Amino acid sequence: MVTPDFSSFCVLIAEDVEANFRLYKSMLKRTGIEILHADNGEDAVNLFKNKKVDLVIMDAMMPGKDGFIATKEIRNISEEVPVIMLTAYANQDSIREAVKSGCTDYLSKPVSTEVLISALKKWLIIFDD
After folding, report:
1. Is the pTM higher than 0.85?
2. 10-127 homologous superfamily
3. Which residue among 14, 116, 118, 125 is the one 20 to 30 A from 1 at the CA level?
4. Domain map of the chain by residue range?
5. Around Cβ 107, how many Cβ atoms within 10 Å?
6. Non-local CB neighbours of 22 within 8 Å, separated by 6+ positions
């Protein structure tokens, strides 16, 4: 797979497990994308409000404000920015809840580098005019 150049984009990764965040960061490093990190839903919403974010990768289960509530709040700020739910809870109820909260896409853990980069390619192309 050819590594895309995402150096003009910024992704917000909302993930409370530090090891998972480091893994996603290493998967995306060679794309050149700017990466912001929030370890809970509240911080994710605040970062989204205060930074230019092109795409959000949202964990479902985080302490305090979970990913579903954080996504709803992000949707109140912007309906255009893609939000990809990335969670270990890959069942129909969780997928429905993600869609209902406003997620653009849904990936299940564990996720491969190829799947993660493909999802970013799919959704960032919208902004790459």
Report:
1. yes
2. Response regulator (3.40.50.2300)
3. 14
4. 10-127
5. 17
6. none
